[in-house]
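We were asked to recover a plausible sequence for a given structure. The inputs and outputs are reproduced exactly as logged, with field labels preserved.

PROBLEM: sequence recovery
POSITIONS: 300
GIVEN STRUCTURE:
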């Protein structure tokens, strides 16, 4: 295929469809009308001799061929953008870019306040988009669905760079006036409480439970919830306690009558940030990673 005969704008349309999985949203992403995006999809199907995207009940699902093409197209677009911006640097105050992070729920709670403030101050025309961090972090970064991942990250492939972003110790939270808040908790007294566990995947134990076993202890998990958002209501209505990272505890205490107590054991969550190596020298992405690093450094 002679590239001189290909409208390279079609690759932008493909990339937008791959990220948005909907014709209307993809059109808005790159400034096209919905009919123009539909026409671009038709031309893409002819160019690649494949349906590329198949309509389902909820979105446009990419075919195997589209998934194969996607990382190559995303890389090509980023290389073109990098070439165009060479020597120009990056001015956040004039940027209208969309910066996307895939975040674990805890990381979003811990960092969103500082990030919103930083974007409002330094890049008021830019958009910060926070998405749930999926299981396939490397695949999300490969196809450009996210710019960075902020989560508990392990076993990343060599082309994904990463760094530890923050370490946050766990504390115990309970309603104000809870009997356990009257004096420092021993490990035995802690284990004897009725506990709430935040378990997004529904698992019935966590890393802390495995540590307690080493001390010959076991806590009773009376309630499992999927998100931290459910914790304040559960605590307010009962004598349950929850063990959460300190930043999350402070967020909860700011909106509810919650007591914060030290956890009688050294236990912390470690959150890392990861990005694709192709974005390592991109000025806009370097700025975004700096914003995340600064937000994490603030002891919120």
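RECOVERED SEQUENCE:
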């Amino acid at each position: 295929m002679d590239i001189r005969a290909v409208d390279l704008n079609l690759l932008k349309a493909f990339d937008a469809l791959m990220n948005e999985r909907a014709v209307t949203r993809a059109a808005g992403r790159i400034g096209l009308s919905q009919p123009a995006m539909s026409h671009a999809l038709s031309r893409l199907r002819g160019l690649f001799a494949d349906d590329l995207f198949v309509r389902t009940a909820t979105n446009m699902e990419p075919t195997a061929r589209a998934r194969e093409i996607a990382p190559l197209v995303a890389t090509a677009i980023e290389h073109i953008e990098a070439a165009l911006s060479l020597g120009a640097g990056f001015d956040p105050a004039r940027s209208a870019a969309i910066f996307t992070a895939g975040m674990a729920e805890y990381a979003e709670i811990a960092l969103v306040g500082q990030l919103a403030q930083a974007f409002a101050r330094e890049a008021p025309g830019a958009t910060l988009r926070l998405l749930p961090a999926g299981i396939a972090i490397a695949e999300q970064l490969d196809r450009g669905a996210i710019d960075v991942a902020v989560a508990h990250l392990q076993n990343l492939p060599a082309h994904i760079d990463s760094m530890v972003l923050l370490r946050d110790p766990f504390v115990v939270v309970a309603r104000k006036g809870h009997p356990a808040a009257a004096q420092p908790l021993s490990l035995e007294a802690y284990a004897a409480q009725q506990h709430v566990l935040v378990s997004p995947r529904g698992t019935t134990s966590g890393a802390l439970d495995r540590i307690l076993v080493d001390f010959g202890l076991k806590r009773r998990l009376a309630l499992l919830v999927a998100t931290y958002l459910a914790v304040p209501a559960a605590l307010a209505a009962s004598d349950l306690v929850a063990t959460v990272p300190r930043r999350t505890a402070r967020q909860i205490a700011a909106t509810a009558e919650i007591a914060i107590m030290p956890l009688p054991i050294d236990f912390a969550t470690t959150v890392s940030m990861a990005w694709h190596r192709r974005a390592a020298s991109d000025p806009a992405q370097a700025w975004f990673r700096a914003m995340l690093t600064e937000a994490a450094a603030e002891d919120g």
